[in-house]
Amino acid sequence: MSTDLATVREPAAEHVSARFDLDSPWRLHPQVSIRPERFGALLYHFGTRRLSFLKSTRLLAVVRALDEAPSARDACVSAGVPDEELPIYRTALATLAASQMISERGER
């Protein structure tokens, strides 16, 4: 499985994934629109005008589950992400957080 599940047009720092907390509650940023595609989805942020590609339908399921799940880890579990793949999804979610596609709940 590829470790590059999310691509942002502007490169995000790799060290961000080390700081991403899977046990915190996250959400899709309110200014982000999802366009499902066969390969996963396109995310467009209307505030920053950034475009991100989700290269997996499972990652799309994780992102969609974020708003309701108690944590990003729970969103991954509900989308069927196996434990051994959590580090890959953590990196993808960290990339999305660095590009403001997702944000911690409580942040604006």
Cα distance spanning the termini: 33 Å
Quote the beta fraction: 15-25%
The global form is globular
> What do the pLDDT scores average to?
87
What structural class is derived from the secondary structure elements? alpha+beta
Helix content: 25-40%
Order of helices and strands: EHEEEEHHHE
Q: What's the gyration radius in Å?
A: 12 Å
- The number of helical segments is 4
- Total strand count, please? 6
Main sheet strand line-up: 1-5-4-3
Uncertain segments are 9-13
The major beta sheet can be summarized as: 4 strands, antiparallel
Describe this protein's structure.
The strands form two sheets. This protein has a four-stranded antiparallel sheet with strand order 1-5-4-3, with helices on one face. Strands 2-6 form a two-stranded antiparallel ribbon. It starts with 5 loop residues before the first strand and ends with a strand. It contains four helices and six strands; from the N terminus they run E-H-E-E-E-E-H-H-H-E. The protein is of the alpha+beta class. The model is unreliable at 9-13 (pLDDT under 50). It is globular, with a radius of gyration of 12 Å.
SSE blueprint:
Layout: E1 6-8, H1 16-19, E2 26-28, E3 32-37, E4 40-45, E5 51-54, H2 57-65, H3 72-78, H4 86-98, E6 102-104
Antiparallel strand pairs: 1-5, 2-6, 3-4, 4-5
Helix pairs in contact: 2-3
